[in-house]
Amino acid sequence: MVYLIDWMEEMQVLLLSKDLGKHLLEVEDLLQKQGLLEADIAAQSERVQALNAAALEFSELDGYQPCDPQIICNRVHHVQACLEELRALAAKRRKELEDSRHLWTFFQEMEEAEAWIREKEKILATRSCGRDLSSVLTLTTKHKTMLGELGNRRALLHQTMKKGEKILAKKPLGSAGIQEKMREVCLRWKKLEEITGLHQQRLEDALSFFQFSADTDDLVAWLQDIYRVVSSDDFGHDEHSSRALLRQHGALLEQVEKQRGAVLGLRAQLALLAPERRQGVDIQIRVVEVEQLYGEVAEVAVLRTQWLRDALAVYRMFSEVHACEVWVDEKEQWLERMEVPEELDEVEVVQHRFESLDQEMNSVMGRILDVNQVVQQLVDGGHPSSDEVRSCQDHLNSRWNRVVELVETKKSQLSSVLKIQNFLLECGEMKAQVRDKRRSIEATSSGGGGGGGGGGDLGGLVALQRRLSTMEAALVALEPRLLELQREGQALAQAHPGRALEVLLPLEEIGREWDELQRTFRGCEDTLAVAGRLRQFLQDLDEFLAWLVKAQAAVGSQEVPQSLAEAEELLNVHVALKEEINGREEDFGRLQAASELLAVEEVDVPHGSLQQWLHKLDAGWGKLLQSWDARRELLVQAHVLQLFLRDVQQCQGSLDSQETTLAHAELPDSVDGVTKALKEHKDFSTTLELNLQKVQLVLQAGESLRRQRHLHSDRVAQAMEELRDRSQRNHQLAQEWTRRLQDHLELQRFLQECRELDAWAREKALMAADPTRDPPPRAPPKPWLQHPAFLAELAQNREWLQRIEKEGEELVQAKPELSGAVRRQLEELRRCWQELESSSQARSRRLAEAAAAERLARSFADVEARLGRLEEQLESVGGGGGGSDLRSVSRQLHRLQTMESQVEQWSKEVGELQAQAAALPAAAAGREAVGERQSAVGTRIVRLIEPLKERRRILLASKEVHQVSHELEDEVMWVQDRLPLAMLKDHGTNLQTVQQFIKKNQNLRREIQVHRPRVDEVLERAAAVASIRSPEAEGVRGLLERLGALWAELQEQTERRQQALDATFQLEQYYFDVAEVESWLGEQELLLMNEEKGKDEQSTLQLLKKHLLTEQTIENYEETIAQLSRQCRALLELGHPQSEQVSRRQSQVDRLYVSLKELVEERKVKLEQQYWLYQLNREVDELEHWIAEKEVVAGSPELGQDFEHVTLLQEKFLEFASETGSVGQERIAAVNQMVDELIDYGHADAATIAEWKDGVNEAWADLLELMETRAQMLAASHELHKFFNDCKELLGQIEEKRQRLPELAAREGRGSAGALQRALGAFEHDVEVLVTQVRRLQEGAAQLRTLYAGDNAEAIAGREQEVLRAWKELLAACEECRLHVASVADKIRFVGTARDLLAWMDGALHQMGAGEKPRDVSSVELLMNDHQSLKTEMEARAKNVATCLELGKSLVLSKSPAADEIKSHMEKLLAKKKEMTEKWDKHWEWLQQMREVHQFAQEAVVADAWLTAQEPLLKSQELGSSVDEVEQLIRRHEAFRKAAAAWEERFSSLRRLTTIEKLKAEQNKQPPTPLLTRKFPVEPPGAAEPRRPEPRIAYVRHELRPERLQPKLDRVQPPAADAAATEPPPATVTAVTAVTAVTAEPPAAAKAEEPGEARPERRRERRERRLERQESSEPELPRHDGKGGGSKATLADIVEQLQEKEAGGPVPASPRDRDSPARLPAGPESLPERTPRPERPRARDRPKPRRRPRPRDSAQGPAEPRRSRSAPAQGSAAPPPPPPAHSVAHEGFLLRKHELDGAGKKASNRSWVNLYCVLAKGDLGFYKDAKGPASGATHGGEPLLSLHRATSEVASDYKKKKNVFKLKTGDGSEFLLQAKDEEDMQGWLRALAASAQEHAELARWHQGLLTTSSTDEGLPRRDPDRPRRK
To answer: Rounded to whole angstroms, how far apart are CA atoms 1256 and 1260?
Structure first.
């Protein structure tokens, strides 16, 4: 145990050591030693524990004890206490060492940070900013790395600073050195950050400058390239190329515009550069050059844009001009060839053409205006081709102006003709209408004049007036039309002087007719006026008297109403009667005025009876008015009485309900109940007041009735009295009840407030009288805190009590009957309130005293407790002397100062408490306890003051000694820490370490210099303390000597190290520069050895530019190499020990630089080739991308939604295809050329380039194929949508036509027959235009159905069926409308025609009887010519008569409303015609007889003269004296014989009997005697029946106009009688007339037998057959004129019929005659000419018509031979038949497959093709579409396929398609044809078979023609000089 105690003492000495280390290593060593000590202490602790346990065992022994147990225990406790103290000292020692280690770690970290900062400062001070962009980027990268290191160092430095702050907080005595070190490092760090920022700014400035230079160079190069492009002279050679160039130029402009920002940003970038860089002259000039170059590029680009646009505009203008000129050429030719027709129908057709021409001209004019605008823009813009453009414009404008003038001229001519024709038609219609109106008025006045004059027949008068009114309205409607016609006629006469007479004559005739009509109408109107007034007067008088009787009966009623409703009803009826009387008053006055007027006019009426009726009328009218007034007074009084009684009943009911309510009222017992009762009673009072007002009104009404002396005044007075009494009684009861309720309400309110206040007071009194109101002294202060709130509530409710008392007094004064209850309640309230106040005051006093005593006691106890704690602290501060070290002394001194301040503060607080304790009352609870506390606190404060002062003095002295000793130790440690750095022998192995060592040595010298004042101060203070004689001073003196020696050594070693480091720095600087150069050269070599060639053209271009910059940089780096060489030579001259090594390094650098330049050249070549490759790749990619884009467009599935859409798509695609083809070809050629050049150059990637070329060409070919496919798809879609659009438009047109039909039908009453016919004709013409469209639509549908299937096919079929359905409906509606219009027009035309014909017949009859008798042949012939002209006129009129009769028959059969009138006109017309015909025949026979007589006389004279002349020749005896004379006499005699033979015929004719002789012989029954043997006087006409002449034939005039034989299709079919109107002239025998009559009979009979309903169908069939004959006759007959296609066959038929009739045989009607009887000649031109001798025409004088083919008569048998027209009727051979013609025609779409081309030879192209097939004239043509036949261009230029010997049949062996038939031609070719359906296929088969049959017939006819002799031999030929007939 003694050993342990000694060990512990030794350990204590070690643990109490003050050596805490002078640097970090020493502290670490001490910590290791401390760890060993702690381990020993831990090991000894176990021994101590074991020893103590063993010792304690001795103290517990029983019996002998070697030592006193108390001693053992004391020793054990002592050892244990020493061990614990040793452990505490060890823990304290470790803590001090840990603090020392933290301190020296902090200093070391700060030193390292300071050294790092100095090193970085030196690096930043020596580093340059680079020479080019790459070096700047390299330095920037290094600087960023250094910034990262700086950031990391900043975090470490902040951690170190935090450690220093913690150390300062633990050890404030050494805070000066730590704070100074921290401040110094912070300053250095800030300086480093500033240097770093400056260096970074310099690097950024350099980077900006070099980047700016590089960007400027790139921009200049790009601008130069762009300038070369925009200054090109290529502006395109056509519109497409110009558009492509403009599009490319637009993209270029976008790039230039994008670079504008870069150019403008140069100034901004320049402004951001460093001042010394941006102020350089070179860079300023560079920027200005870039801006100027960009301005030039932009200006040239704008000019090129304008040039390209001008070129495009010129090309567009040229194309527009060409299109316009083509149109102008076409229209000029059409206008120049066109002649203005004179016919109205043709004029309308031409006018329709001009309307369509106007639309075309409008569109073309817009295009020409666009051309002019473009030309003006080009000229204004100064285009180089302005003259050419202007000349083109002038030429186009002149052509256009000429076309416009032609159009205007033609339109003016057309308008003039149209106006005149329309005017003449309207004049004719107006004249007919005026004449009809006049005749109607005359008929009306003559029929109704008798009845109207006397006024007896009122019905006839009314009907007559109605007809005149209708006629007047019609005249009013006609008058404006007449005036308009006159104005129009005058205008036309002025505009057309040449046709003025033609225009003005109809106007004069119309004017005369109109004047006559006006005179007739006025005469009839005056006659009817008087009779009408009388009839109206009598009707009005009768009606008025009947009404007067009814009104008097209604007014005289005595009925009295018994109720209000009944009274009102009777009064309303009476008022209505008055209104009726007032309305009749005007009628009464009118009757009186009419009677006076009739008396003045002296009308034939019984005057006495009229006056009597008028007197009765006056008396009845006055009586009616008086009766109405009396009845009105009675009804008014009854109505007023009923109103009064109703109001009285209402008031009685209200009073009953009021009485019931007041009788059952009760008083409630609460405030709410009373309030509710008052509210209800108030409502009741309001109702009572309202009812009272009503009662007053009723009473006032009763008083008014009494004053007015009403019939029932007594009844009214009784009701008034009863009502007044009940009302007053109810009002009094209501007022009494209101007063009672108000009194009861006041009482209940007062009692309620009293009860509420009493309840509150009782509650508070219980709270104040609580036995627990005095709380214990130490209870919490809650009661006296709550009591002030209770007092405040009590004071507030005192006002409530006062208010209740005041209200009670007022209630008692106002209502004394309530005083008892009120006063009792008030006394009770006052008593409760007084008790509550007394208890609350006592409680307040007790609570206040207890609270004050409690507060004082707690305050004194608190002060006493604090004094106790302070005494304990003072004992701990005062123990152990002055402290073992400076820190403990300082801490104790601080604690002592705190205690002194607390004691002073507590003394002041105790004085205040003593003053409060003195103020407590003597009887207060707790006063004694407060006094005791007060005395104890005062005593303790006095005992504390003196110890505090003594302890302060001791602590201050100890603190001074410890402070000086501590500072000396610190300075020694500081010098010892710096001395190893000054004595360091390492000078560094590289420049960086040398620089670091130099910086560290410099920092050490500066640190020594800065620390010198501090050391001097510490030495001075230590000398002062060492002079004191004390044990503590000895340690101070030793430290003072040691510090002086170390300080001197430190200064000397620092200077030596600085000299050695300067010598090493020069060598390391050279090595550093060499290493940097080698590094730079190595970097450049690596960059140049890089195989990167760029990913694209731009990157390659950038690499190439960077390489050029690198090449320039390497060239510039040669100066750096030279500078390094100079440094090497300087070191060699100085004789440095490492000179040889320096020389080797320099030569190595030179070799690296040379090899680097070689690498530059190699990489430049590689980059250039790569750039060319990428350039080609870009072109290829762009072209492929362009092709891909075009493929997207070309492969678009969009085929359009409708026709406009697909048309737009097709137009756009055509433009797209054209543009793509031109542009793509150019680009492909350019790429191929570039590829060829690169391959020829020997490029390394030639194979790849060739593959690119092949790929582009394949893509281009695919695009062309795709475009072709797209075009075909769009064309198919266009056809489909065009079909749908055509269907829609056609449906619209059909619907529009159907809508026009009602308007057309509605015009029947507003126009004439001609106008209706023209309107109908125009409408049918418009409908006929739709026929072609419907047929084309069907053909298009058939073609489309072959191409489409499924929904499209169904849609096509549906649309087609819809259009066909609408078309059929339109045709049906048109037919109905046409029949209706035809019926109306026929009626109007029939009436007008019948009237005109009757007038003409009267004139003709009159003309036949007025004539002189003939005196010779010439006068007879003159009379016969006149009579024949009359016959001609009759025959011409016969057609009109027949037409009129047929029209009348059709109207009668169709049950027209005017059938009777039509029948009468027909009868008159037939009778007049029969009379005229008979009279003409008689007169004609007489004239023929006269001519025969005079001709016989004339011929007899001639014959006698001839005989007389020949007698000398016959009687001559001369026989000739010579041969010549004999021969001459013989020839003369032969001539005589020939003449005699010729005269023999004349003599035979003279020997024949004349007509008169034959008639005379027949009459006398005697044999006829020749006229030569006797003479007789001439008999007058009619004396004997004329003998019919012998049949003779005459020729037809060739001047007959064929167009007169062809009736128009829109006219009514003329009757058959017109066909027979062609009668022979006087030279023609009666048999001809019979022939024509026979010819006309079959059609007439057929018409008579046909029903009237079949006329439209029959007429349509005839029109169709006539059209077929015209079409079939065209190829058969030679055509001399386009208008007479069918007339020549008709003329031939006529001649043949006449020849056959001459022969006397029956002539059956030809099919043509049966079908169309109206085709026979009807004019005078068609009559045969008159022959000079009608009895016996001579053969030489008889004309022989030309032989022409005619159709075989169906009535003849097949074996009956034909005869020649010129041959006699009997015994002649038949002429050759006419040649057959190809009449079969068929057309439509078919799918064709050419199987065989010749016999057994397969066709080259055997694919199916959809073609438009046309079968016409025996040939089959194949066309591409329906427009092909018009243009004549067949499919593939194939010739027409002849069907001669062709066969067709169904292709049953072909199974791939349906509806396929086979066609085999005569040459062996074979075709497969597919139709759309079975019906179409059968139609084609029939047509092909019929056409083949026609070919066979034609061949047979030609064969027969070769074997048939001609019958035309000997016929006179036609005079070639005679003009052809038209």
So the answer is: 6
